[in-house]
Task: structure prediction
Amino acid sequence: MHLYVAFLGGSLGEGRMGEDHEVVTIVAEDRADANTRAKAKWRGPGRSHVDALQRIDMVDGFRVDLVPAGSGDYGTLYGYND
Result:
């Protein structure tokens, strides 16, 4: 399994022109699986598509290892003023 980060795009909703975006993290076996899992995390209206997908193996010299620890997602979201 590998860690992926996806940049999703999708509809803004009825009566609006443009596109909304969202970044999600996914654990998947391969690129095709990551695309499917990423689109399932879309919270906007209608369907989404993957604008970009990156497999994360190492960040700033630190190897990324995945260890099973339960289900679901957990993380801290920081805003502009944090």
Remarks:
- The radius of gyration is 14 Å.
- The chain is about 10% helix and 40% strand.
- The first strand starts at residue 2 and ends at 11.
- The longest helix spans residues 31-40.
